[in-house]
Amino acid sequence: MMSLKNKRVLITGGGQGIGRTIAEAFARSGASLVLSDINRETLERTAQELRDEGHDVTAHVADVTDVEALREMRGSIYRDVGPVDVLVNNAGVVFGGNFLQLPLEQHKLTYDVNITGMTNVTWVFLQDLLERPEARIVNIASASSLVGLPYGTSYCASKWAALGFSESLRLELKEEGHNNIHVTAVCPSYINTGMFNGVEPPRLTRMLEPDQLAEKIVASCLRGDAMLMEPFMVKLTPLLKLLPVGLLDMIGRALGVTTSMRNWQGH
Ligand SMILES: NC(=O)c1ccc[n+]([C@@H]2O[C@H](COP(=O)([O-])OP(=O)(O)OC[C@H]3O[C@@H](n4cnc5c(N)ncnc54)[C@H](O)[C@@H]3O)[C@@H](O)[C@H]2O)c1
Question: The CATH number of the domain where 182 resides is what?
Answer without folding.
Answer: 3.40.50.720
